[in-house]
Here is the input.
Amino acid sequence: MSNVIDSKKISRRNIVAGIAALGIYGFARNARAAETRPLAERLAAYAAVLRYEDLDAATIERVKSHVIDTLGCGIAAFDERPVRVCRDIAQSVQGPSTIIGTTSHPSDHIAPCFAVAESERARGHDLITAIALAYEINCRLVDALDISSRGWDSPVFSLPAVALAAGKLMKLDAAKLTEAVNLAINDHISMGQTRRQVLSDWKGLADGEASRNAVFAAMLARGGLTGPTPIFEGTLGLFKQVSGEASIDVAKFGGHGNPFRINQCGMKAYPAVVFTQTAIVAATGIADEVTKGAPDKAAALERIASIEIATSKRGLVQTGTDREKWAPATRDTADHSMPYITARAMFDGDITNDSYAPAKLKEPRILAFMQKIRVAEDPVLTARTGGAVPTRITAILADGQRVSREVNDIPGFAGKPMQRPDIDRKFRGNIGKRWPREKTDAVLQSLWVLENTQDIGALLATLTV
Here is the structure.
């Protein structure tokens, strides 16, 4: 995850960003009649009635966990070149919100929620509700609609999610929330080329751009502007042009006994695309076995003649189809490259932010080793559900011996959610030596009681140095 947070003392600026996979119930008295209304209206009705009191304790805890993880990742990315560029641009624009940068995935929605919450002088309760709402809308739409196979990028779903979350923080009624969705979606559909072939700086910024557009749409709706309707079902609407038809039952969204979707969202253990997370564990396990007792680990790994990696269909498309994945020239391509991540994990025993240093991307030993790797879909892995992102790696040694590892789940995935000690440990690792330990302790303590926060701006001020 590539987040940005300005840890220097910066005056208020008017920028919002946020991220990328994933809404709450409409509560119509007559559910069947409600389902005949346009989807944008039903999503807006759900958002309008959602209250903090509708969130269960586990959901509130999960929201805070994702907030802490996102902020920590953002601080770790503070000195990255794309982040510096965006920060310089942000500082040139006057406005009321603290800069908190860009992120990706559902956590991308956290940054714009913070920005709007600060601008609107919202409380911690309001912020947590908005974040839960954004996750719910995004995840439920992702569950129902497959746009990636049709050539579109995931920030498409960030548009209605952030528009509704921002509008919720602005206290818009259902009618204006509907227009926020209509306005956000119509002119801001992003193409899937963002995540194919050579991955650029834009990959980490695409969701931030979607969030900015979504917040602006909510502002326009607050001012009384209307948007194209019905935006989903129209003859040239999203269903027809982008996603295909779908039946989405908003009455089953989180709340009133229904689980909130954020509870099925994971956190990455490693700074790499989700489809490689289990590959890292499998790769290091194979490397440990192959090199056990060897005085020279690198030399022992050269005993491997070839490597077969089995992944899901989406894993193959995202990490193992483009030729650029076997010679990544950019960090963004490398962290979406199954061959690079696997090779680097085998030789280094881990994947960290340092794994993408320019010299490492060009390391001859790794580039040569990657040519031994082949990636393919295993339909059995594709068919697995329940939050699993499985990978099977088989190394064939020069003498014909086969060493195989299959990993389906790791801590951080939905099936094995990180607990507070894990989240604190990751946050501290992302902070590193940027802050004194006492400051990190105080920030964590404040974030774990986010629901009690009365001043979002004051909370954000604690992230400065």
The radius of gyration is 22 Å. The chain has two domains: 31-267+419-461, 274-407.
